[in-house]
């Protein structure tokens, strides 16, 4: 268990407060009572095929009905086979056919303050036109497309256009570097890249096209690039390779029937960090993912057509895929998108947006909540937040102090908080309170949703008792789980299904209390959670050792007040190291991976502490990074003096 986790566990272990569902909150669309939930959960556990089969029939629009709900053992379970479906139809056409074409689908605000509202009709038209553009570019069902864009409506349009013709999108968060884009282009064998000139962040332009140009120097599979003009930044357009979005869209027809696709047709690939240096291309398929996104959005956020729902994530992460685009749109709701930073032009921006658009449901990350706390209550207090009726969090364990602040200052003590535990791999929320029903405990994601059957087990797969820490696993398959890692099915089986027999192992440690509430403690592998973003220590290490001055590097996490976990790099350098080299290495890591991997600390050491068998003693390094005296047994240390020297390197 890493350093920050133990810090977090400490505060959470003493947490005994229970908050009953607020009396003001009446669920509109989801479960109405605790008993109703318990019954549904038990039914889904005993009869998953019946439970999911009925939901799929009632909630998804099928071009051809499925013939089997689920078949095959985990991890090879297939869902809704025989069925034909289309995700963009599910998100758009059926709402228009039901007469809701005039309803706002996306309310967007750019960082400079420009705004757009796209009704379902508008979004449908743009998606169809862009789908025709893709076809004209030679894109066919099954082709992979990289999307590397700022938070503009065209990002959602591009995704849905891919889905409409059966192309598989692979979205890369704009904070990743050119090198990271190239790696992902190559792994997915992407044929086309969709990007923008740049995006806005804290008043500055974040260049994207320039990074794409650089990535294409070593992305042989990419044939063409479509560039959306967002900021007007200066870009170079390569003839016969680069095309302007607006030029391609001119005169393009808005008539594009949604392709009839198999339930298991790949909808998207999303790269995430594992415990090795190579990112994993998590693949989700159409029907199962859509059902999960749609149902969990409805259950957890109680999302109804009257709501204005705002998830502050970037669409480049799974949270944005499932809870900005696919989930809310499948429910015919109004989803908000904001392009820029929360502290631009000042720290009150989010709350101004809540007031301006009368946001009712608000979903963000603990790292953001901690930043809001630090900025001060005066910012939220300046705004009228009375429209809010529910708050959500995701991405990392929330410390009770941040939970209480969220509850009091943002929620006015009247909004239930849903602390949602899930992962890129799970496709949708797995463990979460149901609003207005589940009593909440600050720091606990409470209970599994219907259809989700977790357990806490030890290394041998035995279930452990109440309040005993262990590994969080899933004992049954669910429709929205990942199907494979793109191009590496063996790694998929090995990563998730080989540790605990017959179970999906998520990578997290957790405990379950006497009320059946889950308390997730954090990753038990070499994955860091930095501001709710996943990063592998090995990824950062390989970036460091690729620098000519570095002979060896070890990267560990340490508790960070705002980020949850910070990145600490122990480096042995050829020339011993200098302030100059620190700066250089920081830039080097940013270039290799992206700004999200910027090291918080770089410490030079003559050698790294190792066991006699040559393994780096990470536990010890974590203690040093956290400034703790090491309680662990160090008798296997190769060289005791290494430890003393490392302590001296403290910044
Ligand atoms: C990891 C997954 C799922 C969307 C955002 C991150 C941690 C996520 C919680 C939560 C405690 C959480 C876990 C998980 N995590 N939500 N509510 N409480 N931990 O997706 O990048 O795939 O990361 O985030 O450690 O394994 P991701």
From TrEMBL:
GO cellular component, alphabetical, reads: cytosol
Which positions in this protein are listed as binding ATP?
395-397, 419-424, 508, 523, 534
What SUPFAM superfamilies does the record point to?
Acetyl-CoA synthetase-like (SSF56801)
Domain Acetyl-coenzyme A synthetase N-terminal stretches = 37-91
Q: Which InterPro entries match?
A: Ac_CoA_lig, ACAS_N, AMP-bd_C, AMP-bd_C_sf, AMP-binding_CS, AMP-dep_synth/lig_dom, ANL_N_sf
Which UniProt key words apply to this protein? Acetylation, ATP-binding, Ligase, Magnesium, Metal-binding, Nucleotide-binding
Q: Which residues carry this modification: N6-acetyllysine?
A: 615
Report the enzyme's class at the first EC level. ligase
Pfam family of this protein, just one? ACAS_N
Which residue range or ranges hold the AMP-dependent synthetase/ligase domain?
A: 98-478
Residue ranges occupied by any AMP-binding enzyme C-terminal domain in the UniProt entry: 539-615
Reported modifications of this chain: Acetylated. Deacetylation by the SIR2-homolog deacetylase activates the enzyme.
Q: Where does Mg(2+) bind?
A: 545, 547, 550
Residues bound to CoA:
201-204, 319, 343, 531, 590
Q: Which reaction does it catalyse?
A: acetate + ATP + CoA = acetyl-CoA + AMP + diphosphate
Q: What are the BP-aspect GO terms?
A: acetyl-CoA biosynthetic process from acetate
Taxonomic superkingdom? Bacteria
State its role. Answer: Catalyzes the conversion of acetate into acetyl-CoA (AcCoA), an essential intermediate at the junction of anabolic and catabolic pathways. AcsA undergoes a two-step reaction. In the first half reaction, AcsA combines acetate with ATP to form acetyl-adenylate (AcAMP) intermediate. In the second half reaction, it can then transfer the acetyl group from AcAMP to the sulfhydryl group of CoA, forming the product AcCoA.
Report the family membership: Belongs to the ATP-dependent AMP-binding enzyme family.
Q: What is this protein called?
A: Acetyl-coenzyme A synthetase
The species is: Rubinisphaera italica
Classification of source organism: Bacteria, Pseudomonadati, Planctomycetota, Planctomycetia, Planctomycetales
């Amino acid at each position: 268990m890493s350093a920050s986790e133990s810090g977090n566990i400490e505060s959470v272990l003493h947490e005994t407060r229970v908050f009953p569902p607020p009396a003001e909150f009446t669920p509109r669309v989801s479960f109405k009572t605790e008993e109703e939930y318990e019954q549904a959960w038990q039914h889904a556990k005993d009869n998953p095929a019946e439970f999911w089969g009925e939901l799929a029939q009632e909630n998804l629009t099928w071009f051809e009905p499925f013939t089997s709900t689920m078949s095959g053992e985990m991890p090879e379970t297939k869902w809704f086979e025989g069925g034909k479906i289309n995700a963009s139809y599910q998100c758009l056409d059926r709402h228009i056919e039901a007469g809701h074409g005039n309803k706002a689908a996306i309310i967007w605000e750019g960082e400079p303050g420009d705004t757009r509202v796209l009704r379902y009709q508008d979004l449908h038209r743009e998606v169809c036109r862009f789908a025709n553009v893709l076809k004209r570019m030679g894109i066919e069902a099954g082709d992979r497309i990289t999307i590397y864009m700022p938070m503009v409506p065209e990002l959602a349009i591009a995704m849905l256009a891919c889905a409409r013709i059966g192309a598989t999108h692979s979205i890369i968060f704009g904070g990743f570097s050119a090198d990271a884009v190239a790696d992902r282009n190559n792994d997915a064998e992407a044929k086309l890249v969709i990007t923008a000139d740049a995006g806005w962040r804290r008043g500055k332009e974040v260049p994207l096209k320039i990074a794409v140009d650089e990535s294409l120097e070593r992305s042989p599979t990419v044939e063409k690039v479509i560039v959306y003009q967002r900021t007007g930044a200066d870009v170079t357009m390569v003839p016969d390779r680069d095309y302007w979005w607006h030029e391609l869209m001119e005169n393009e027809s808005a008539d594009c029937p949604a392709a009839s696709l198999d339930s298991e047709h790949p909808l998207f690939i999303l790269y995430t960090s594992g415990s090795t240096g190579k990112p994993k291309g998590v693949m989700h398929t159409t029907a199962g993912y859509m059902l999960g996104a749609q149902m969990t959005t409805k259950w957890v956020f109680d999302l109804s057509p009257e709501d204005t729902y705002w998830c502050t994530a970037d669409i480049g992460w799974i949270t944005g895929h499932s809870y900005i685009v696919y989930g809310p749109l499948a429910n015919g709701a109004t989803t908000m998108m904001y392009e820029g930073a929360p502290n631009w032009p000042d720290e009150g921006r989010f709350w101004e947006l809540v007031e301006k658009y009368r946001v009712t449901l608000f979903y963000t990350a603990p790292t953001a909540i901690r930043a809001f706390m630090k900025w001060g209550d005066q910012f939220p207090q300046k705004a009228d937040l009375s429209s809010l009726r529910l708050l959500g969090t995701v991405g990392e364990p929330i410390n009770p102090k941040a939970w209480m602040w969220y509850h009091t200052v943002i929620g006015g003590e009247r909004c239930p908080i849903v602390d949602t535990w899930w992962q890129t791999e799970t496709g949708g929320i797995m463990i979460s309170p149901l609003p207005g029903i589940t009593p909440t405990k600050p720091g606990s994601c409470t209970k599994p949703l219907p259809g989700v059957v977790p357990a806490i087990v030890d290394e041998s797969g035995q279930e452990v008792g109440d309040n005993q820490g262990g590994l969080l696993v899933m004992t049954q398959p669910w429709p929205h789980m990942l199907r494979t890692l793109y191009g590496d099915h063996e790694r998929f089986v090995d990563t998730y299904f080989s540790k605990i027999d017959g179970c999906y192992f998520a990578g997290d440690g957790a405990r379950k209390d006497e009320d059946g509430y889950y308390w997730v403690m954090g990753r038990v592998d070499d994955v860091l959670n930095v501001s709710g973003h996943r990063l592998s220590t090995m990824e950062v290490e390989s970036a460091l050792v690729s620098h000519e001055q570095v002979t060896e590097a070890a990267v560990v996490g340490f508790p960070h007040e705002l980020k949850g976990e910070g990145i600490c790099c122990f480096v042995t350098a050829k020339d011993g190291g200098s302030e100059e080299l620190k700066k250089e290495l920081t830039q080097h890591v940013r270039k290799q991976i992206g700004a999200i991997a910027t090291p918080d600390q770089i410490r030079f050491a003559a050698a790294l502490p190792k066991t006699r068998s040559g393994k780096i003693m990470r536990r010890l390094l974590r203690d040093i990074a956290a400034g703790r005296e090491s309680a662990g047994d160090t008798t296997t240390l190769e060289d005791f003096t290494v430890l003393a020297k490392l302590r001296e390197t403290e910044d």
